[in-house]
Structure prediction request, 1056 residues.
Amino acid sequence: MIANLSPGLILIVGALLVPFLPGRLRYVYMLALPVLGGLQLAGLEHGAYGQTEIFGYTLTLLRVDALSVVFGTIFLIAAFLNVIYGMHERAPMQEVAALVYAGSAISAVFAGDMITLFVFWEMTAISSVFLIWASRTEAAYRAGMRYLIIQVGSGVILLAGVILYANATGSIAFDYLGVNGLATVLILIAFGIKSAFPLLHNWLQDAYPEATVTGTVVLSAFTTKLAIYALARAFPGTEALIYIGAIMTAFPVFFAVIENDLRRVLAFSLNNQLGFMVAGIGVGTPLALNGAISHAFVHIIYKSLLFMSMGAVLHRTGTIKASELGGLVRSMPLTTVFCIIGAASISAFPLFSGFIAKSLTLSATAEGGYVIAWLVLVFASAGVLEHSGIKIPYFAFFAHDSGIRCKEAPPNMLIAMGIAAFLCIAIGVYPAPLYAMLPYVVEYEPYTTTHVLTQLQLLFFAMLAFALLVRTGLYPAELPSVNLNTDWIYRKALPVLIRRIALLIERLRTGTLDRLQRRLERFISQVYRHHGPEGLMARTWTTGGTVLWVALLLGGYLIFFYL
Amino acid sequence: MIAAHLPALQIVVPLLAAPLCLLLRRGALAWGLALVVSWATLAMSAMLLSQVLQDGVISYALGDWAAPWGIEYRVDSVNAFVLLIVAAVGAVILPYARRSVAHEIPAEQHSAFYTAFLLCLTGLLGVAITGDAFNLFVFLEISSLSSYVLIALGRDRRALTAAFQYLVMGTIGATFIVIGIGLLYMVTGTLNMADLALRLPPLGPNRTVLVAFAFLTVGASLKLALFPLHIWLPNAYTYAPSAVTGFLAATATKVAVYILLRFFFTVFGFSFYIGALTLQNLLIPLAVLAVLVCSTVAIFQDNIKRMLAYSSLAQIGYMILGIGMATPTGLTAGIVHLFNHAMMKGGLFLALGCVALRVGSVRLESMQGLGRTMPWTMFAFVLGGLSLIGVPLTAGFISKWYLVQAALEQDSWMLAILVLVGSLLSIIYVWRVVEVAYLRPAPPGAAAVREAPLSMLIPTWVLIGASIYFGIDTSLTVGVARQAAIMLMGGTP
Prediction:
């Protein structure tokens, strides 16, 4: 335990050594970093450390309280699992980026002021983009570029908000802000971009599926949950967040159902899960905040598990398209089991980790009297089961046999998935330690007859429906085929409607964009004409011309003084 | 005993060493002497600054002729800071110069080069240290004449025309300054700046003084290359030898800014002749144009040295913007940026000199793949570029932070936005280099390129390191700048 040292800095600084270490030693070293971070965290008492003065503001590099400890802990666990999961390949850039990224996210969680938060906020953006670029495809390069622009943009908006806030209040402490005035709205928007609010969300589904096998797993853990942490810190009880969250849970369901790329399905479902947390923060009661925070905690584990299992499939088969997969249970039985555990957790089956977190949020929303929001959340819960709980394992490992025969996932992946799966069940069965970490005292018993029965009813009816549909051959085939008479609502009408709307938007968009682009081009060519290498401004004027300017300026000044 | 004569030694040592360099004839010997002298001047300027910070203003009567009749050297926190900048840059660049100069200048001219270099250093230090208006003009001419020679030594034949244009424009500028000084002498009968400051206010609004003020403003603007009087600068920087560009970019314009500060605030006195309104009307429009126009021009340049030259013009715009706001914060921002920009732009030009040494060209297309072949040089360039953009934890951020604060203090949102727009423009021109150096492979068939020698890398990294260090620890830069700003505004520090 070293005083004043943020656990995140151990990872950031430690990462710089990674490329220079040989083979085995490197893995041992990389595993040791999160462990060291954990030891450091365990040794820290609650309080503020590492305070320095800059520009007359107090920076707090390390603020330890219940909220930051929960997020710090889960980030360290995630970083540890990620290292194990990535061990099968030698990719120095990715390894360094993943550790710096995790370290930045952890440091951001422990930041006690908004300047420190901003610095690490931007560092997560810059380090994580390398995980996307590590795919080394043209699509990944472009997606990474878009991702970087949006992420850095969020940081710039955050900085703008912080400057305004500091000017207005004279404080940069990162505590409860609440929405009042331009400064806090800017800060909220910055957080909103990172936590993928509706309409600010598209970077997530755009970029995550383009990253490498390991990269997607790493990305899924940190960026958005850092934003959830920031929201929980600064904007609890902001009512708008309830509805934003509700919309977030509902709309990705449709996209996830019609998406063919299974990692993208998971990206949509990630968005939906974030909605639960945002809604919980919006309700803002101790119960709801506990729900959002514990949800973030367990979510990181099971979402990582799902991304890991899909990554293993991609690693072994080279594809992640639902239409090309199926029947892998014979080749990858263990991965199948782990994936089902992850699916059960995300669907919130009793005895799995999702259940003990999600029911908190749902109860709190109901108690708060937000009926519409509650209904949307319940609908979205069924949707989660549909697209993440059933679609993912079913299309990858069961369904029709694609004929692909491959090896089981590499042992390191299996170990990582195994640990994550164990945690999913362990937390689900015995939630007390997690509840003990939460910032508010939990007087909540998830395993009451009512809770379990309600949840089981929801789940079993959804499963019954699914089973019936599959039995009767009515469930949409995973091939992109057209089944007019049976599932047209599901597969045809909805996509057609969405496509219509999309087309309309697209047409409007391209129209406006074209016009804007033409205008921009004209503007740039104007600028180029004057400022380009041959332009008036860049040419070397004759000495006489400049002397004329001198005379003009002198004359101007003289006239100015005489007036 | 010697410590009492530091102000004189500061000038006399490099001044006497200059002809010695010429007598030594051998390039290596001349370099050695210049190196020792430059380090000695750095040590002296550091001692002067610490003395001033401790004991307040130092007044030194040259030859024991008491001011205002004799020439007085007067060191306060403003010019002690400028002295330190000039001496530090000189001391860093001379170790660098040996390899760079050997590569770019014929051997028989080396001793002449170091002579001119020391004279230029003397001139710049002299302008900063002197408390006598006419003496200032003399030193200004010493530095200018020697810098014409230094620029003309460039390999490219266009260096000659560039130096000639600079000579004409520089002479006009110096003439304007001397006319201004002459007019002041006419009405007050004194040349000592402190004395002038005492005698000018009782005269009341006086046409001669106003004309003097106009001449001095325009003359100084010419020397510091304020838009639209900047036209001599891009060519001069582009075609001068790399070490010279680095030196002049980091010092010459900064000293000209100092002249402006000194005359505006000390001689004329802030509140008397120059209200905040006058300064704002005079300087801010031109500063705004400088930032926008020159940044945009920089984006389209293919010669990176020229690009950096235009970027310098934009950065000068920032300094003048800070000064033009005429508030303590604005002035602090201007003075801090004076220092920070000297560090980062000096470092960038030195990194570019390394490229010139190994690749032979500083055009954008010849920098393809240099991120791999010259990793240290290019990484220095990237860090300098980040500082230029104003990324947090770099010196550039500190400057821009104070500029934005100064703008917000006056509720001028447009100026705050302008600073940010300027940063965006600089992202574009820095990114062009990064993209070519790191993301493009070296063209096939290109000759193998090695990393630059340590004697050049270390000075480059010293300046780049300083531009990072002063982004984190601002106690020296901001502390001194704030003290200087308060003093210039007429308060007691």
About this structure: The CA atoms of residues 123 and 142 of chain B lie 5 Å apart. Chain B touches chain A through 38 residues (CB under 8 Å).
